[in-house]
Amino acid sequence: MSDMIDNDIIEPSIDPTTKKIGVRHVKATNAAGTRTKIQVRDFAPVYTDEPASLGGTNSAPSPLETVLVALVGCDGVIINGVAKAMGFDYTGVDFACESQIDVRGPKGVPGIRPYFESGTLTITVYSDETDARFRQLAKNVEFRCPVMNLLAAAKVDMAVTWEQRPAEEYSGSVE
């Protein structure tokens, strides 16, 4: 790959010369409160709300919490795709994520950003691959993950820590 700057970045898994647009649709309704009902494709509705401490009914995750949901979910998808492209063997991944926001921003205080200031994300990959291949996986996931890059573009100070544990230690399930 002669035109890539970093030799650790693997080849694209799609024709890089042909633009391919992916369109996502959601519909939602909000009955003049903090709770919103959201429809995505033909799935059961999902909801957002705010904690009672912020004037909500605390009946669902906040919209900003769903951004973190999107981040770890997207990382899970991208880890899987990069691992397949690299022939990287792993048994699972655990995520721990949190973020900080100055709630004065969404309340309209000038000069305070109305979204995350910073956050932490720990990604634990259960794999017996070499350290070099593990680092290459991490680098490629960070290069490809749409949500991680969206947060970076918004200048959210996100500290990402990658940890590797033996494959046999994974005990999670997505059931």
Description:
The chain has helices at residues 63-86, 131-144, 146-153, and strands at 26-30, 36-40, 46-48, 92-100, 118-126, 157-165. With 175 residues, it is α+β, with helices and mostly antiparallel strands. A three-stranded antiparallel sheet has the order 1-2-3, with no helix packed on it. Strand 1 and strand 2 form a beta hairpin. Helix 1 (63-86) crosses helix 2 (131-144). The longest helix is centred in the middle third of the chain and has 24 residues, at 63-86. The N and C termini lie far apart (39 Å). The mean pLDDT is 94.
Summarize the structure in short.
With 175 residues, this protein is α+β, with helices and mostly antiparallel strands.
**What gap, in angstroms, lies between the N and C termini?**
39 Å
The shape is globular
* Share in helix: 25-40%
CATH evolutionary superfamily of the largest domain: K homology (KH) domain
Strands of the biggest beta sheet: in what spatial order?
1-2-3
The CATH architecture of the largest domain can be given as: 2-Layer Sandwich
Number of strands: 6
How many domains?
A: 2
CATH topology of the largest domain: GMP Synthetase, Chain A, domain 3
CATH class of the largest domain: Alpha Beta
Main beta-sheet strand count, sense and barrel state: 3 strands, antiparallel
Q: What is the strand content?
A: 15-25%
The total count of helices amounts to 3
Rg, Cα atoms, Å:
19 Å
What is the structural class?
alpha+beta
Order of helices and strands: EEEHEEHHE
* Uncertain stretches: none
**Average residue pLDDT:** 94
